[in-house]
Design brief:
Blueprint: H1 5-10, H2 15-32, H3 44-53
Helix pairs in contact: 2-3
Length: about 60
């Protein structure tokens, strides 16, 4: 699986906040793992972005 560009392009939210959330989620996935990583062939960034776009992960930008 590659980065979900169709969903990413259609996203209307703050791209900076999404990028920060993806970076933090990648760190979480690299430490804790996830059962979906095998399906994504270890592509942590793709999985993190997909989870955020599908609203499986909630985030907010802290000031």
């Amino acid at each position: 699986m590659i980065i979900p560009f169709k969903e990413l392009v259609g996203e209307k939210g703050n791209m900076y906040a999404l990028t920060c959330a993806a970076m933090k989620r990648v760190l979480q996935l690299s430490v804790a793992g996830d059962e979906d990583l095998t399906r994504y062939h270890g592509k942590i960034v793709s999985l993190a972005i997909k989870q955020i776009l599908e609203k499986k992960i909630e985030y907010k930008l802290e000031e």
